[in-house]
Fold this protein.
Amino acid sequence: MAEPAEEKEKKGLDIGLEKGVSKLTPEKIEQTINDVLDKECGPRFKTYVETCIHCGLCSEACHYYLSHDNDPRFSPVGKVKQTIWEMLRKKGKVNGEFIKRAAEITHTECNLCKRCAMYCPFGIDIAYLMTVVRRIIHKLGCTPQYIQDTAHSHSVHYNQMWVKGDEWPDTLQWQEEEAQAEIPTLRIPLEKEGAEIMYSVIAPEPKFQAQLIYQAAVIMDQAGVDWTMPATVGWDNSDMAMFTGDSELMGRLKRAHFETAARLKVKRIVMGECGHAFRSVYDMGNRWLGWQMPPIPIVHAIEFYAEILRAGKIKVAKKFSRPVTLHDPCNVVRGGGLHEDARYVTRQLCETLVEMHPNREHNYCCCAGGGVINCGPPYKMKRIEGNRVKAEQLFAAKARGAEVLITPCHNCHSGLHDIVHHYGVGLEIKFFGDILYEVMEKPEG
Amino acid sequence: MHSVYSFVTGPMVWVAFGVFVAGCLFRLVVLLSQVSRKEPFIFSYMNLKWSLRSIGHWIVPFATVNWRRHPVLTVVTFVFHICLFLVPIFLLSHIVLVDEAWSISWAALPDGLADALTLTVIACCLFFLVRRIRSPEVKFVTYPSDYVILAIVAAPFVTGFLAYHQWFGYPVMFILHVIAGEIMLIAIPFTRLSHMLFAVFTRAYMGSEFGGVRKAKDW
Ligand code: SF4
Ligand code: SF4
């Protein structure tokens, strides 16, 4: 999730990066790089590096490359050359300036969206190689300030936004009371042991988008779902540590999340419309903890909405009439195959779907994901300029009639907001939850 | 001259094939043993069906989005790789050598066709060379070693062609041809030409990830 950012500055000072680099010594750089590359990395890393034939075929996969008029410095393999290859070639003997540039490349010029893995004939996972660079940057203490601050929040409070212990149940109670004005019998069941579902969200929801919790509560209530939310840590499923390369912290967070669900003896975890959190619980965090697949089944909101609509648990009073277009978030589509469910939900809720092109697995990333937006204001314009193709893609969908952009992911939401605003695309951005809440049958609605 | 000739066509052939076969086996064994030691989780995601689905798409021309985006390169790439195997294995003079040594033989390409395919390989190499120099995204990631690798692959075909047509002195060209072939065999396991060995594994792993975990297409 984004911090509200200053528009004016193209690239400001990043204290975390500047200060971090100023403290480095050549020995520390060399030792850290070689530790990570030789000891932490295994045959997967080696094989990727040695198999790449420098053909450049991955270039056109990357929205940064396309948006910068095919500037090779932004091609996926170009980023590997400027980071990994140089580190290997110089056996870790690189200077602070190099580390600074490597941190910028891996943290603000790659969204780890894995689109390039679908364009490389060998399926070389450049996003993985970029996370290796982030790991080195993390171990050198040169992670950009804003995202590092978020990781600190995770470390202290087990959530992304410095939400303190009592603020969480307070917010739930507040939203419950608000919603009771609409549906007097509605509850947000806290700590209900043995419920079928634990609903987890990312910390920006209680922090400044509490209406999303309200909407979710109404949807759960009306669908008659047996659900609960924890009152303890473990309620937040977000994970910036995964993006800073702080795998140990990622493991700590995910363990708390899964153990909370286990303590509540729920059968499944349903999560809000977030992409990176899905990656964290379904792809990265669970694996770090040694689970091939999540120990407790994870159901993303898209899948959950599809499920309750299919089962007829929610009835649509009147379909959303304005034409919509649908953004496929990388983490749930290229990472979880939810694109057809997303289309099913769209068709159930909306009258007209105008597909953007490319779509599904081939959709362009929002350029906010992978922790890029979390690197904050110093990189805002870089992020927007790095995704001109997204604006073009959206303009084309708009020209074919789209008025509303559905974006079932928090990161995408914020990133696309910036893009729509900056390029003047003029699409209104919504979550599925917004539309579902709007069109569903409600007691007095 | 004669001793060079008998060396490169005698012991050196054995050495080259030996290094090639042993080198390939060595690289594969090291890969698999390192995976099982350091990253055994990879095996738990590997899945035959998803691997074949992915490999199947990528070994068919134009079956993937990216192949379709680059029609010329796609045709050149496939033609090149097919000829690279076809020509040396089904060349009459190679078969004759094997036949003389072990009395094993198989159908050969007509000489004229083999000649044309050889020229095709050389033309493909030139295409790759020009692409490396002219396309900014390729040039940016090109190291001198990339040219060396390309030369290693082109050399046996260039020298073979010249030797067959007996230009620039047959004996010298013939010896150069044999040496070039031997260098290429030796280089395969130890340079980026090893993508011949590893491509199937990297593709299979990505295919398994996309099929089994990500439930999405990877082409
Ligand atoms: S942003 Fe996406 S396509 Fe570009 S290099 Fe990173 S993972 Fe690959
Ligand atoms: S497409 Fe694959 S092999 Fe070619 S340069 Fe990119 S990563 Fe390397």
In short: Chain B has one domain: 2-29+66-194. Chain B touches chain A through 46 residues (CB under 8 Å). Residues 90 and 107 of chain B are 7 Å apart (CA to CA). Residues 2-29+66-194 of chain B form a domain with the Fumarate Reductase Cytochrome B subunit fold (CATH 1.20.950.20).
